[in-house]
């Protein structure tokens, strides 16, 4: 199956929520309460929340659009495509003093979301989405980009490291009643900053 990376549009809100329902639980530590994950999906990664974010000028959502072999259309003429992943960039600067204090390249775009459906791991979709995300972030004119990743998510940490990010500090992420431990990762968008 081939794919393209493109900016998301309002009509993608439902597909983005469906993709989030598959990918977000995989980024959570195994000890996470499934009820907390479900509540987060319903409140933060729902179709209506994606619709709001798609209308926010400070957020940029990119998606990996899948193209089935032959890319055939159904009887109504619509193409049978889905989303294999997405990223969301946020232009506003972090309110959290801990995050601001850890970052060394400011101002910085936040890579708030970066998910690939596991059915498409190893197919180049993650690399293509990261390249498009970094290019989009650089287009803001800001010199840096940062993200938070759960400290137990070794696969993601390795991928981000290969993509030029390095650990700048730590923060917490609230999932239900628990505080999860995250790394703050950053990289430059302007120089030859390399991962550590």
Layout of helices and strands, plus pairs?
Blueprint: E1 2-7, H1 13-27, H2 34-44, H3 47-54, E2 59-67, E3 83-90, H4 97-102, E4 108-116, H5 125-138, E5 144-150, H6 154-162, E6 166-175, E7 178-188
Parallel strand pairs: 4-5
Antiparallel strand pairs: 1-2, 2-3, 3-4, 5-7, 6-7
Helix pairs in contact: 1-2, 1-3
Q: If you had to describe this structure to a student in words, what would you say it looks like?
A:
The protein is α+β, with helices and mostly antiparallel strands and 196 residues long. The protein has one domain (2-188): Gcn5-related N-acetyltransferase (GNAT) (Aminopeptidase, 3-Layer(aba) Sandwich), CATH 3.40.630.30. The protein has helices spanning 13-27, 34-44, 47-54, 97-102, 125-138, 154-162; strands at 2-7, 59-67, 83-90, 108-116, 144-150, 166-175, 178-188. Strands 1-2-3-4-5-7-6 form a 7-stranded mixed sheet, with helices on both faces. A hairpin with a 2-residue loop joins strand 6 and strand 7 (178-188). The relative contact order is 0.18. Mean pLDDT is 89; it is low at 72-80 and 192-196.
